[in-house]
Amino acid sequence: MSVLNAERIKLTSTKSPIWCSLIAVVVSVGFAAILAWGYSELESSGEGSMGEFSVASTQAGAGAFGSMLVMIMAALAVTTEYRFSVIRTTFQAVPRRTHVIGGKALLLAAIAAVLGLVVALLSLFVAQAISGESLSIGDGSNARELFGIPIYYALLAVLAVGVGTLIRQSAGAISLLLLWPLVIESLLTLIPKVGKYFAEFGPFNNMSYFLGQDGGVDFYWGPWGALLYFAAFVAIVFGASLFVVNKRDA
C-alpha cells in the first residue's frame, strides 16, 4: 500500500498525466462529434451515407487516438524517473523492484480505466446528441464495444509501463508504442504470402477486433478470444520488463 501511495504522489506531482488525460478526452470526444455530424449531414441531405451509425463508430476516436495518449502517459511515468535518476532513489527505498514496477502499473491501469470509461461514455452521449440517433447499450455487441475501451486503456497502461521499463528512454519507448499499431502491424500485413498471418495475429489488430473494428480480417477466434490474446501479449511484455529490471542496474 505504501508503494502505491508513493507512486500516486509522484504521478500527481507532474503535469503530464493531467495534460495527457485532458487531450485524450478532447480528441476522442471531438472525433466522435465530427463523425456524428458528418453522418447527420449526409443522412439529412440524402447525398450519401457513412454507413451504419453504431457504438463502435462512436468509439473510433477513443480507440485510435485516446489510446495513444494513454500509452504516452504511462510510458512517461517510467522513463521520466530514469531520465532524472529518480528511479535509483526509489529502488533504494523499495529494494523489491517488482513491487515498484508492479505498483506503478497497477495505479496507472486504474487511472487509465477510469479515463477510458469517461471517454467512452462522453463519446457515446455526444455522438448521439449530434446525430439524433439513439443506441441501446444492451443490443448485440454494443456493451462490449463501449466498455471495452476502459479495458483497452488499462491494458495499454500496463504495456506502456513494461515498454518504458525495458527501453528506459522516453523517445524510444513512445516511438515504439505509437509506431507498432500505426505502422509496423500495417506494413507487416503487406508482406506476400505471410502478410495475412501478421494481420490475424497482430496484437493491436486483435484488440481492434474486440472493439468492433475487424478490418476485414478473418480471425481465428471470437472477440473475447482476441481480448485474451492481447492480454497475453501485454503479460509477456510486462513479465519481460520485470525480469530485466531485476537483472540490470538502475
From TrEMBL:
Signal peptide: none
Coiled coil: none
Keyword tags: Membrane, Transmembrane, Transmembrane helix
Protein name: ABC transporter permease
Keyword S-adenosyl-L-methionine applies: no
Transmembrane intervals: 18-40, 60-84, 105-127, 147-167, 174-199, 219-245
Keyword Metal-binding appears in the UniProt entry: no
Top-level taxon of the source organism: Bacteria
